[in-house]
Amino acid sequence: AAGVGEVAGALGVPLYCIRAVLDLADESLAIDFNAARQPDGRISMVRVVAGALSRPALLVPELAILAKRSRLAARRLGDFIADCEF
């Protein structure tokens, strides 16, 4: 968002950045999402699942929690955007 903000500012275009956070401030995730990053910066779901299967008792439940939080965040973001007035 910072990079986009710089360009928007240079162009005189307003920028709104809305974020949803899936992990708690005092929470440390065991899943290494950086190891699942592809050269283009996207996350490979195949690598995430393969990593989770390396320690399934710990990582599969963590993925399930993140999936649940992702659905909740998507709903809340959708509700927020639907109610926004710019």
Report on this model:
The chain is mostly helical and 86 residues long. The chain is built from three helices and no strands. The chain has helices at 2-11, 45-54, 56-83. The chain is extended. The chain starts with a helix and ends with a helix. The mean pLDDT is 91.
Search tags:
86 residues, mainly alpha, 3 helices
Summarize the helices and strands and which ones pair or pack.
Blueprint: H1 2-11, H2 45-54, H3 56-83
Helix pairs in contact: 2-3
Our count of helices gives: 3
* Secondary structure: helix percent: 55-70%
What pattern of helices and strands is seen along the backbone?
Answer: HHH
Distance between the termini: 18 Å
Short note summarizing the structure:
This protein has 86 residues and is mostly helical. It contains 3 helices and no strands.
